[in-house]
Structure formats: structure tokens, C-alpha cells
Amino acid sequence: MRVAVEATSAAPGGGLSFLRGGLGALDELGDFEFDVFVQPGLAHERFGSNIRTRVSGPFRGLGHRLAWVQLAFPRLAADYDAIFAPGNIAPLPSSAKTVLFVQNAHVVPQAAWREEYGSTRRRLQRLMARLSIHRAARTVFISRTLKTWARPYWSGRFPEPAVAHPGVTLRIRQARTTSVSGNVLLVGNLVPHKRIGRAIRAFSVLTRLAANVGGLRIAGSESGRDCIRRLTECAAREGVAERVKFLGFLGGDDLARAYSASSCYLSTSALEAFPLPPLEAMAAGTPVVVPDTPVFQEVCGDAGIYSPDDATETARRLATAINDRGRADELRRVAQERASMFSWQSFADTLSAELAKAAHPQSSWSGGASSPASGQ
């Protein structure tokens, strides 16, 4: 089966990691030939033996890219058996043979996201996502939580969307370098909804509550002008400037080493569709302290230490992960077991079935059961 992949929204970070893992797992099935349409920055990516990279763009902005997706891409993809659109937005003229994968929370009707992202850009993304979810032949969500949030977009339609969790692309090759470093790691681009200032405040409280505390290490790209400067000023006000280090964007072995060298992982993010860094941390055997919200519960299960939105309570949980050796050792064991439940093979099995149904709708079973990965 020949499949065109509209991946011009992919960029280094979580999006590219997902694309590598998902396409690599689909390629291993041997049932597909993929042409992946990407922007020039990914021209040299090699996603698999049966996967070709085709370069489009560069685009002048979101509007230019959306126009290309809706006008030029359907013509390029006319002769393919199916289309895979992993970037929340489908090419509407080719929707009858498109499998849409929705992986970002800001494109669904979440009140908190609308408050954080009220720009014209975000409104346009939500409008196009709503049309795409309504019209795509098959829709797959990255988590059950995101599918629930998006219910107003798909409620009453058939077939009901599926869910396919991604696996861990990061290669955790080395054993943990230490279990007593006392370092706390946070991974994610420095954007408002990650609420990194709250993480710094919780870490400041931690330094006063507990012994054996190392530093707060923040790995992620700066999203706007003066972002790091403002966070550095926050750390200075909290009295921990010398203990907070910004690592910049980390990938591959550098990121794997950062997970393995940390006593615990911390997230204070307000909204996630699928929090990948805690899953990567668990795969490395690192205890995770995360918000007590449905999507983190979906990913971390009984391996997570959950915290309310309170700096002191978060600090207490971090102290447990760092200083309670027996509890930390148990969490590491459970974390690795939990992470092993998320596999790219399972993801590929679900997506391959959806692609086959999009390519051959007349042979799709018309019953009402959801896919194995739908979580229904």
C-alpha cells in the first residue's frame, strides 16, 4: 500500500521524535511504502527502508502552510492509496482516504487552552482541526484524555475515533549513573503552559525542606525573547539562581544521560495531550513527580508521584523521591514496568489497521466496536 504522509508541521523535539518512532514501527510491518512530505529542515531525515522523504516549502507562515496542505498536497497525493496526517490537520479535499492523527491539546475545545492561546493563529488551528476531525475517513487520538476533550468535535460520528499511544523513541542504553545525585530534571520547551516558574518555586521550597538536594536542570528550547532571562530572575528571587541550570535543547544520548543522572523528574505543566518526557524518564528508571491530572494518570499510572498545584506539596513529593531510598527504588522498578506498556509495535498495529480501512472502506467491518487501542 502506498501512503503519503503530510508531515510539514514536524520539527525537532516531540513532533519529530513521534514521527521517527511511528513511521519506523509502521515500516517494520513491511506492508507500506511511504512518501513523507516535510519542510527543508528535515530533508535529510531517514525514517525507514521503505520510506522516502520529499521536501516541500519552506512556508512563510501558518497560513501559507495550510494553503499548501489544502490545495497543493491533495494533487500530489492523488495517486496514493491512503494519506496519513499526523499533524492535527487533514487535507480536506482528500479526507475520504485520510487517517488523521491528533496529538496536540491546543487544537481541541479546552477552556484553559483558549485562555492561554487566544491568538488568531490558535483559533485558525482549532477551526481546521474541527473540520479535519469531522471529515477525515479515520481519526486517531494520542490519548484517551485528548479524545475526551475533543468529544464536541466527533460526538455522534461513525466510526468513532481510536486511540494509539506512542512508545519511547529515546534509546536508554546506559544504566543509571547514580541514584543519589539529588538533581531534579524538567524537560520541555520553555512555553507558558509548562509553568516552569512554578517548578522553580517548588524547587526552592525543596532546598529548605530536604537534605541531599542537588540542582534543578531544565532541558528545552527557549520559546520567546528573554524567556530564560525572566526564569533566571525568578530563580534569583527564590534564592536558587546558582542551583538552576538551563541545558538548552537535548536530544539522543544527551537526553538519555540527563534522565539517568537525575534523582527524579518533575513536571508542572498545566496541559498536555500526551506527556512524553515522564514516559521517557520512567523508561530510564527515574521516579516522576507530576500534576494530579487525567492525562498524567493515563501515562504514569501507579508509577507516578502525583502533586496538587501547590509548591510546598510538590516539594514534599520531590523530597520523597530524593531521600526515601526504599520508596525511590520501588518507584524505579514500577516506572520501568509502566514504560514497557507503551510500545511502538502496538501503535503501528492500530495505525496500520486504520490506514487499511481508509484505503479500502468498502471492506471495513461496519460494526460498532472500537479499535483495540481505543481504550473504550
Secondary-structure element string: EHEEHEEHHEHHEEHEHEHEHEHEHHH
Quickly name the level 1 CATH class of the largest domain: Alpha Beta
Report the helical percentage: 40-55%
Tell me how many strands there are.
13
Radius of gyration, in Å, reads 21 Å
Helix tally? 14
Looking at the overall shape, the CATH architecture of the largest domain is: 3-Layer(aba) Sandwich
CATH superfamily of the largest domain: Glycogen Phosphorylase B
Largest sheet: 7 strands, parallel
Number of domains: 2
Tell the overall outline: globular
CATH fold-type name of the largest domain? Rossmann fold
Average pLDDT, all residues: 89
Which residue ranges are poorly predicted, with pLDDT under 50 across at least 5 consecutive positions? 365-376
Strand order of the largest sheet: 3-2-1-4-5-6-7
Question: DSSP strand (E) fraction?
Answer: 5-15%
Specify the structural class. alpha/beta
Task: Give the N-terminus to C-terminus distance in angstroms.
Answer: 29 Å
Please describe what this structure looks like.
The structure is a single chain. The protein is an alpha/beta fold. It has two domains: about 1-165 and about 345-365, Rossmann fold, CATH 3.40.50; about 185-340, Glycogen Phosphorylase B (Rossmann fold), CATH 3.40.50. Helices cover about 40% and strands about 15% of the residues. It contains 14 helices and 13 strands. Strands 3-2-1-4-5-6-7 form a seven-stranded parallel β-sheet, with helices on both faces. It has a six-stranded parallel β-sheet with strand order 10-9-8-11-12-13, with helices on both faces. The radius of gyration is 21 Å and the shape is globular. The protein starts with a strand and ends in a 17-residue tail after the last helix.
